[in-house]
Amino acid sequence: MSREFNKQSMECGEILLFPEFQSKFIHRRNIILWLPPGSGTEKDQRFPVIYAHDGQNLFDPQTSFAGVDWGIHEAMGRLLAEGHVRKTLVVGIWNTPERYREYDPQKVFEEYLGPKEKSEYAREHGQPLADLYLKFIVQELKPFIDSSYRTLPAMADTFLMGSSMGGMISAYALCEYPEVFGGAACLSTHWPAGNGKMADYLAARLPDPQTHRLYFDYGTETVDAQYEPFQLKVDEALRRRGYVEGSSWVTRKFCGEDHSERAWRRRIEIPLRFLLK
Fold first, then answer.
1. How many helices (H) and strands (E) does the chain have?
2. What are phi and psi of 169, to 5 degrees?
3. I want to staple 252 with a disulfide (CB 3.0 to 4.6 A). Which of 21, 42, 141, 217 is the partner?
4. What are phi and psi of 24, to 5 degrees?
């Protein structure tokens, strides 16, 4: 990371890099951690945690795809100053060349695709690795963060966030580990993955709406133009499960927005306020 990046980050908190974080489940990768302003001096306070995918895109335009980062540290700084959110740690998990396989919900592949669909999927992508990726987060990364920093480790204070395939793995993780994660923000979720069967999985596996929260959004341009029919099906599954729109669940449509880091940067404050209100 550049000296300029570290200086800018300190104005909105502190950013730490853990290079080549090792795992027995998946390939090693960088982990980046944002600590909110003052969190090092408030000895009696403990903090919620957001685990965010595609971590290289969150804080630094020099590492981000297409040279635009989400500016989560800047957004959090503004929201904290305005009193809209709680002080929260953000853990960015960098992706690897295995990104698609790690982010594509594995049980959708195993339980909802037919033999021909599985064969075609495996020929194009290989076998899904999502369950191993989630084991890394739950069994290795989260225990490290909880033991090293003053976190609130319970489900109610542990969240997920991601875009595109990162939205898919965030929703999947909430369903697979409802005792670990209490909410997920899924931006421009790439519903066509797995032949659109994620909606059927969610209808069967959504966690308790009394204790969990879900945020979804999508644009209307480029890749996002495909998403609305899938999102409407997911929204109906949420209603049937008992999620209340505006309270335990939000879906937002952003007309004219495309599938890009620039678009997600423009609206990142909305899911942050929803998870951390």
1. 12, 8
2. -70, -25
3. 217
4. -90, -5
Sheet (strand 213-219) strand order: 14-21, 29-35, 89-93, 49-53, 158-163, 183-187, 213-219, 249-254
In the block, tokens 């904290």 appear at 80
- Is the Cα torsion angle 217, 222, 225, 226 positive or negative in sign? negative
Phi, psi of 103 (to 5 degrees): -95, -10
Question: Do the bridges between strand 89-93 and strand 158-163 make them parallel or antiparallel, or are there none, so unpaired?
Answer: unpaired
What span, in angstroms and rounded, lies between the C-alpha atoms of 47 and 151? 5
Residues near 184 by Cβ (< 8 Å), separated by ≥ 6?
Answer: 159, 160, 161, 170, 171, 173, 174, 213, 214, 215
Cα→Cα distances 151→156, 204, 212, Å: 12, 31, 19
Local structure of 53: helix, strand or coil: strand
Q: CA separation (Å) from 112 to 158, 183, 194, 205, 227?
A: 28, 24, 9, 13, 19
Q: Which domains does the chain have, with CATH numbers?
A: 3-276 (3.40.50.1820)
Per-residue pLDDT of the chain (277 residues; tens, 9 = 90+): 333 344 344 467 899 999 999 999 999 999 999 999 877 666 789 999 999 999 999 999 999 998 999 999 999 999 999 999 999 999 999 999 999 999 999 999 999 999 999 999 889 988 899 999 999 999 999 999 999 999 999 999 999 999 999 999 999 999 999 999 999 999 999 999 988 999 999 999 999 999 999 999 999 999 999 999 999 999 999 999 999 999 999 999 999 999 999 999 999 999 999 999 8
